[in-house]
Write a structure and sequence with these properties.
This protein is mostly helical. The chain is built from 4 helices and 2 strands; from the N terminus they run H-E-H-H-E-H. Strands 1-2 form a two-stranded antiparallel ribbon. Helix 1 (3-31) runs antiparallel to helix 2, helix 1 packs antiparallel against helix 4 (101-126) and helix 2 (36-61) packs antiparallel against helix 3. It starts with a helix and ends with a helix.
């Protein structure tokens, strides 16, 4: 797979993950809790995306500007942090999870910032 295609595919998946986290967070704030199954599904998707990045990181980093590499690393770190955040909160009830919404929102903000930087750098290359 070409580097640009690989990068574009990863960016699309990160944007979908951002949308999923945002929707999950909105539901969490509305209900105050989420089911364990919903949390595990989102967490699995986030960790799979992080693993995909790690497997292909050498290809992705080849011939990329340092700022873009840093933005990619920060986006993956935000995804990992969100996944870890989703692992907590299962103490009171085995069927429902109460995640710290502020921590998850912080991860979402960091991911959004990193994706914006990556999209700006992509537009500069496309022009």
């Amino acid at each position: 797979m070409a580097r640009t295609t690989l990068r574009r595919d990863l960016l699309k998946k990160m944007i979908v993950a951002k949308i999923d986290i945002s929707a999950w967070l909105s539901l969490l704030r509305a209900k105050g809790y989420m089911s364990v199954a919903e949390s595990e599904h989102l967490r699995s998707n986030l960790f799979e995306l992080c693993n995909e990045y790690r497997e292909k990181s050498a290809e992705l980093k080849a011939a990329r500007p340092p700022q873009e590499i840093v933005s990619l690393e920060r986006a993956v770190a935000a995804l990992s942090s969100a996944g870890i955040c989703l692992m907590s909160g299962r103490h009171d009830c085995p069927h429902y999870i109460a995640v710290d919404a502020d921590k998850l929102e912080s991860c979402l903000d960091q991911l959004s910032h990193s994706l914006n930087a990556l999209l700006v750098s992509q537009q500069a290359v496309d022009v």
